[in-house]
Amino acid sequence: MPAVRSTASRKAEAEIAVRPINGFIGAEIEGIDLRQPLSPAQFKIVHDALVQYEVIVMRDQDITVDQQMAFGALFGELSIHPFSPNLADKPEVIILDYSKDNPPALTDIWHADETFREAPPLGTILRAKVVPEVGGDTLFSSMSAAYRGLSERMKQHIHGMEALHDFKPWRPLFSHNDRAKLRKLEDEFPNPWHPVVRVHPVSGRRILYVNQQFCVRIKDLKTDESDTLLAFLYRQATIPEYQLRVKWKPNTLVMWDNRSVLHYAAHDYYPARRTMERVTVKGDRPVGVSGAYAPDAVEANGMVKPLIAEGTRPGPKRAFDRY
Ligand SMILES: [Fe+2]
Questions:
Q1: How many Å lie between the centroid of ligand 1 and the Cα of residue 107?
Q2: What is the C-alpha to C-alpha distance for residues 20 and 79, in angstroms, rounded to an integer?
Q3: How far is the CA of 274 from the centre of ligand 1 (A)?
Q4: Ligand 1 centre from 297 Cα, in Å?
Q5: Architecture of domain 11-285 in CATH?
Q6: How far is CA 78 from CA 27, 55, 91, 194, 285, in A?
Q7: What pLDDT, on a 0 to 100 scale, did the predictor assign at position 52?
Q8: How far is the CA of 17 from the centre of ligand 1 (A)?
Q9: 254: closest CA among 137, 146, 144?
Q10: CA–CA gap between residue 230 and residue 161 (Å, rounded)
Q11: Is beta strand 274-281 parallel, antiparallel or unpaired with respect to 253-257?
Q12: Which of 74, 93, 119, 292 has the highest count of CB atoms within 10 angstroms of its CB?
């Protein structure tokens, strides 16, 4: 009976609440049960929240990995990580199981996932299974907010720049005897040049698209210039206003828009156990801002830090402020 279904689905949509968490990033979504398939209208609410708030948090999702994969598949084809150990029969699923005998590695650094690929993932879905009593939070930083926070002069400076990305954290896994294997992976994942400022394919927002886990250098700059500029740009992710810090509980599910945020897993719970299930959705090749520089006209998400015009900051003027 289609009429009954339609009433039920309207009710299900009406029960969804999207609540922003911080001014620049993050929303908690209530009223979704991922044990059931989402209707197209429910999925649209979740998808739009992801694009707008960049990180979505859903609590109490006691789901199987198959249900997590089904949720991911709504966003696109799932991706298989070339280095992380995955489930033998479901290679799209990575189990991150850290404990005394398997300390966490490679995640306590600001990064977007797999930007060493020509087409890095659209998004990543993590679900908590075992959570340490204290610690083990994941931090996120909005790189669209970070871009907006730069001065116009700096935005002009980095306009059109490209950065080289590499799977460098995994290189030490290959010993001298594994060189043939490493060469094969280098052929499979040739270093991509990604724009330093990426345009989000859905929202059109500009995103500061560099991360210290995978970036090597900026094209056409001297090494010292590139290192200095990258260090400055990396620092933007550490500005607290751009951040969200997720405290996990068992069955908390978080999805982040891997095109527009960086993340960092706080390494403060060893030797306690922390177990997560991860599913990743394939993305497209990053595209930069085309043509000559013009200020960004796309409306920003949420609040924007008000610009204080030159010389209008209240308070006594200091000699060096006059120039
Ligand atoms: Fe990651």
A1: 6
A2: 28
A3: 15
A4: 30
A5: 4-Layer Sandwich (3.60)
A6: 23, 18, 10, 22, 16
A7: 95
A8: 27
A9: 137
A10: 11
A11: unpaired
A12: 93
Contact 94, 85 (CB under 8 A): yes
Element (H, E) at 28: strand 27-30
pLDDT at position 318 is 67
CA dist., res. 280 & res. 104, Å (int): 19
Output the pLDDT for position 76. 98
Task: Given the residues 166, 206, 278, 296, select the one marked as catalytic.
Answer: 278
10-residue averages of pLDDT along the chain (323 residues)? 62 89 96 96 97 97 98 97 86 93 89 97 98 98 95 96 95 87 92 98 96 97 98 97 97 98 96 96 97 84 54 62 57
Of 47, 111, 165, 206, which residue is the catalytic one?
A: 111
Answer yes or no: 263 catalytic. yes
What is the spatial distance between Cα 189 and Cα 116, in angstroms, rounded to a whole number? 7
Say if residues 22 and 212 touch (Cβ distance below 8 Å): no
For residue 113, report the distance from its CA to the centre of ligand 1, in Å: 5
CA of 12 to the centre of ligand 1 (A): 32
Catalytic residue, candidates 148, 194, 198, 263: 263
CA of 126 to the centre of ligand 1 (A): 10
Neighbouring C-alpha atoms within 13 Å toward the C-beta of 294: 5
Residues paired with 193 in a beta bridge: 164
H and E: helices and strands count for the chain: 7, 15
E strand or H helix at 18, and its extent? Answer: strand 17-20
Catalytic-labelled residue, pool 47, 113, 205, 259:
113
pLDDT number for residue 175: 86
Q: What pLDDT is recorded for position 53?
A: 96
